[in-house]
Amino acid sequence: MTSPRIAVVMSTYNGEAHVAEQLDSILAQDLSASGAAMRVIVRDDGSTDGTMGVLRGYEERGDIELVAGENLGVVGSFLEVMSSVPAEFDLVALSDQDDRWHADKIARAIEVLSPRDQSIPQLYCSEYVFCDGELREQGRSHLNRRGVDFADTLYENMISGNTTVVNRALVERVNAAGRDGVYCHDWWLALVALSLGELTYDDFASLDYRRLDTSVSPTGSGGVALLRYRVSTFLDKGELSCITRQLARLRELYGDEMAPDKRALLDRMLDGGRLRKAFVGVRLRQKWPEELAVRLLFLLGRL
């Protein structure tokens, strides 16, 4: 890509306290070396605090495009704002409302994605720096411990949406698919990319990830909080069925286009019996305790 155009999409909801700091870090991106042009599109998901007032100030200065929408939830809101990105944009970057981007975040993603085949879906994601609510550093993430492929993305969301940059080919496929069956928007992007194209995981900390009591998940928090969250998620029948529906939707939409080995694995995980799933010969999670837990869920018929 030469002088690519990149759209940064953000969904906000009651983010008055930190959204200005996040937007300032986005607007301060150093794009001089890449020659890239950037536009920031923010969709507010029905905030009831002062978020819209903050956003209107940026809109009036011409720094962002602002869309005020009804409350769709985080997944629906992100998919909605992604669908609004004009076709002339080569790349789309996803942003949370309360982090702080490092100045070279976008430039790094462009550098990594530029040599890739843009005719197929491409997804870039990275690591980040864990921080507390005041953005005091707590440590660096290590989400990618053993590599990321199709198999270990089926039952684990291996990417963090706030680090993600996707190309036009992936955006078009996801937009055409709609929201039906999508459990997590960033997880869905990864599944589609790995089904039809490529995913690049960069061992590079691209942002400061602010952890708050209101954060969607406790990733990066203490071990007890994280364990409690995962137990409640994976043992809740409704949540588990959402994961299965997401995989069924993936097969429905893209099964005929997948490489034979990927399609065979997906068929086995959706149609196989308890033993066939529990004793599949591939790794499904990054950590061994979680690997064993998922296989136990298969044996119990919960997944």
Provide a descriptive summary of the structure in words.
It is built from eleven helices and nine strands. By secondary structure, it is an alpha/beta fold. The chain has two domains: 5-210, Spore Coat Polysaccharide Biosynthesis Protein SpsA, Chain A, CATH 3.90.550; 223-299, no CATH class. Strands 1, 2, 3, 4, 5, 6, 7, 8 and 9 form a nine-stranded mixed β-sheet that branches. Helix 8 runs antiparallel to helix 9. The termini are far apart. The model has no long low-confidence stretch (mean pLDDT 93).
The tally of strands reads: 9
- Mean pLDDT over all positions: 93
Q: Any idea what the radius of gyration is?
A: 19 Å
Q: Given the helix and strand composition, which structural class is it?
A: alpha/beta
* Global shape: globular
Strand content: 15-25%
Query: What is the N-to-C order of secondary-structure elements (H for helix, E for strand)?
Result: EHEHEHEEHEEEHHEHHHHH
Name given to the CATH homologous superfamily of the largest domain: Spore Coat Polysaccharide Biosynthesis Protein SpsA, Chain A
SS summary, helix count: 11
Task: Provide a compact summary of the structure.
This protein has 303 residues and is of the alpha/beta class.
Question: Which descriptors apply to this entry?
Answer:
303 residues; alpha/beta; Spore Coat Polysaccharide Biosynthesis Protein SpsA, Chain A; 2 domains; 9-stranded mixed β-sheet; 40% helix; globular
Produce the secondary structure layout.
Elements (H helix, E strand, L loop, with lengths): L4 E8 L6 H9 L9 E8 L6 H10 L4 E4 L4 H11 L7 E5 L4 E2 L3 H9 L8 E10 L5 E4 L24 E3 H10 L7 H12 L1 E13 L12 H12 L2 H18 L5 H12 L2 H5 L9 H12 L4
Parallel strand pairs: 1-2, 1-4, 2-3, 6-9
Antiparallel strand pairs: 4-8, 5-9, 6-7, 6-8
Helix pairs in contact: 8-9
